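anyone seen this seq b4? input:
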Amino acid sequence: MEIVALFCDIDDCWLQFEPAWHRRLRSEGSWQPPGRSRLCLSEVRTIVVSFPQSGDRTCKDYFLRYVTPHLSWAFPHVVSYPRFVELMQAALIPLCAYLPTRKGKSQGVAFIDSTLLAVCHPKRSARHKVFAGFAAWGKNSLGWTYGFKLHLLINDSGELVACCLTAANIDDRKPVPPAPQGAARKSLWGSGLYLPGALHHPLCTGGATHHQVAQRQEE
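predicted toks r here
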């Protein structure tokens, strides 16, 4: 999505979400007037969302090497990177509210998989404090990782249908809900870790042939 269209989409969502969010904070007694900043929070969220599409390895590289020198026309009041990191903390909850508005719809064929997200180098896991009590050890084909596991479900157009973040030691099948009684039967593609019995879906693994797929859908 082009940067201006992305900003408008994020800002429109925020204008609808902001009143309800502030009422919730006031009812809990935790609301504080937002601090003043040259860079508004919708601009911060636009930069955060556009970063994964940039190809840069880190958000810092994207911010300093592309946003600051090349997107000054879109963000004329850009701040320093340390200040941007501070502003990102206030962007998490609004971005969680924005995510459902960008989800696609399943058209009958879906793909499911998970990936490990490391929170620190394995050698520093014993000293890690930020996610202590939440992160855990998990293993995939690349080895052991200390952190979380991101579960994704996408449709045949590559659009995100559902997602879930768990500790890295959670079984891949656990976040997947069973299909409700009477639900339409769909083809769900995944690795061999996702067993048909556990998912309650007609499931074909990546190595299945078309004949095997047809047989499983007829069961």
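The radius of gyration is 21 Å. Strands lie at 109-118, 136-140, 143-155, 160-167, 187-190, 203-205. kinda curious what u guys think
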